[in-house]
């Protein structure tokens, strides 16, 4: 079962998220603030696949999209002999995962890693105050 936000993205990028109904794929909900980030990542991956694999011979399977320790995780498997395509896909995914570490999971605004009820999450200052979270870097340094 996947969340509504992720379902909308899978409908836009069937080549990237084509195995949505397979038993292999484990997807969860995308935090509201990261929808654009994941949407842009899928657009980038889709464009790379169309540009570098027009014959559609490369098998890219997205296994999981989720938040873990306050960061986007995008797990995938790719079956290709095209090393350039593999490297460019890997770089695009890494860039989105790093970017997620500075994007509030609720608002999409600039955020920092925070701790709320022992959970790490990226929050903008307004959301951090609203939730009563602490900046994780300070929290982690005191452990």
Explained architecture:
With 143 residues, the chain is α+β, with helices and mostly antiparallel strands. It has helices spanning 4-12, 35-52, 83-100, 125-131, 136-141; strands spanning 59-68, 71-79, 112-116, 119-123, 134-135. The protein contains 5 helices and 5 strands. The strands form 2 sheets. The chain has a 3-stranded antiparallel sheet. It has a two-stranded antiparallel sheet with strand order 1-2. Helix 2 runs antiparallel to helix 3. The longest helix is centred in the N-terminal third of the chain and has 18 residues, at 35-52. It starts with a helix and ends with a helix.
Short description:
This protein is of the alpha+beta class and 143 residues long. The chain has 5 helices and 5 strands; from the N terminus they run H-H-E-E-H-E-E-H-E-H.
Keywords:
143 residues; alpha+beta; 5 helices; 41% helix
Unreliable runs, pLDDT <50, ≥5 residues? none
Radius of gyration: 17 Å
Helix content: 40-55%
**What quaternary form is this?**
single chain
Total helices: the number is: 5
Structural class comes to: alpha+beta
Describe the largest sheet: 3 strands, antiparallel
Count of individual beta strands: 5
Order of helices and strands: HHEEHEEHEH
Mean pLDDT: 85
- Span of the ends, CA to CA: 37 Å
Layout of secondary structure:
Layout: H1 4-12, H2 35-52, E1 59-68, E2 71-79, H3 83-100, E3 112-116, E4 119-123, H4 125-131, E5 134-135, H5 136-141
Antiparallel strand pairs: 1-2, 3-4, 3-5
């Amino acid at each position: 079962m996947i969340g509504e936000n992720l379902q909308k993205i899978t409908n836009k990028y069937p080549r990237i998220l084509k195995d949505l109904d397979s038993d292999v794929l484990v997807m969860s909900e995308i935090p509201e603030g990261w929808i654009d980030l994941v949407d842009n990542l899928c657009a980038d991956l889709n464009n790379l696949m169309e540009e570098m694999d027009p014959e559609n011979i490369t098998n890219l399977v997205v296994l999981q999209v989720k938040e873990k320790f306050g960061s986007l995780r995008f797990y995938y498997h790719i079956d290709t002999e095209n090393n350039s395509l593999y490297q460019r896909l890997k770089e695009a995914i890494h860039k989105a995962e790093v970017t997620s570490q500075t994007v509030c999971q609720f608002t999409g605004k600039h955020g920092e890693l925070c701790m709320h009820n022992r959970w790490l999450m990226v929050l903008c200052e307004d959301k951090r105050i609203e939730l009563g979270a602490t900046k994780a870097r300070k929290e982690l340094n005191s452990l």
